[in-house]
Amino acid sequence: MSALISTSAGTLVERVIRWLDSVPYAVLAIPLRVAVAAVFWNSGMTKLANWDTALALFTDEYKVPLVPPELAAYMAATVELTTPVLLVLGLLTRPAALVLLGMTTVIEVFVYPEAWPTHIQWAAMLLVLLCRGPGKLSVDHLIRSKLMA
What we know:
Elements: H1 2-21, H2 25-49, H3 51-62, H4 69-89, H5 93-111, H6 116-132, H7 139-148
Helix pairs in contact: 2-3, 2-4, 2-6, 3-4, 4-5, 5-6
């Protein structure tokens, strides 16, 4: 009887694993794109909600080297409000992911090095999108399909 239960459990586990393995990347890429887009979009919207505070943060707290605080604030807000839209649409996904990976690196190295557990999550999502792209449910895939036809 024990062997029968063990075999049944093993079969069930094997079925579940096969089912999970069969989930298309296109389905998995959507929450990746939306999740990382939400992080940066919300940050950009926070900057826009109170630009004076955003400038003060870049002047007093963030202190990104080699870039004047006002320019850094404009650059950050621009990236945070454009790349999330591209990610959600799946348009220019790899370049957008690369830009956000660079921004994440700057934040990690120069601004909040102690926040690495959060930044590594962002980086992991962005690396998957950079290396595997947005999936078939994207504008990138549509454009690529048209160009290849």
